[in-house]
Specification:
alpha/beta, MULE_transposase_dom, 7 strands, MULE transposase domain-containing protein
Amino acid sequence: MGASRAYIASLHLGHVKCNPSYGIKHVIQNVKDQTGYDVPYQKTWYSLKMAREIVYGTWESSVQKLPAYLGAIQKYNPGTIVEWKHKGFQASTGKYVMGYVFWAFKPCIDGFQFCRNIISVDGTHLYTKYKYKLLIAAAMDGNQQVLPLAFAVVDEETYPSWKWFLQQLSQHVIRGRRGMCLISDRHSGLIKAVREGPDFVSPHEMHRYCLRHVCSNFNSTIKNVVLNDLCWQAGSEYQLRKFNRIMDEIKKQDVKSFAYLDQINKEKWTASHDGGWRCGILTTNMSECINGVLKGARRLPVSALVEIT
């Protein structure tokens, strides 16, 4: 018969509470060490789900308590920003349906004034049955330290959600600071939101692409390791003559590869044409490192996620 799901869950409550990244492989090994029992994968999955719900609650209960939780943060941490955008009102329950929620902590907003004039944004999946997304904005100070600026949970990573997130970021964090540069991947909704919004367009602000994402998209199309390496060299080269030499080499090896890169605005992806806006930052590593720190938390209900941020 083996151990029940409830028993397996009870063995791991402390682990789940202390380590949001505690996963299935950890449960299987821990049960094996304690009982000698090999837990089937499916039973492990349900047991871990049960343990997380005991510790953190369900997604539904977490969403219900989120307004009160964020309100308490604002009360005891004055200056923290919280903004909501609801999908609509559910008459049967008398409650609003959550669409987007944005939050930025006061110490992070204050710390931004000591950071470089560049913000990295990124979006990632939450591992829940409702398929919400987490949007992240981060900055870097002169000592190469990363500062998380703002977060949002949205129902989809689309033009409307990115537009709303950038509006909140501009209003509550940037607050009129000039000379800003936004660096991101080439998500179509994000590009449209930047292009049609007033916040990151020339001549006072700029939008740049993450070079790693440009190279990744290039490699997905071209599928050539040598050319992909040349793509990175071209994008990261600061001297114009060296950039041109690398592009000539790409053209010599494959005209289609050259044409693919040549049709992308060079100011957006190359250091040689950037004009100094990037502050030497070529990728979205700032926001992606925050994403990596939160990897385990992305499996948790939304209130627990907010607490860990």
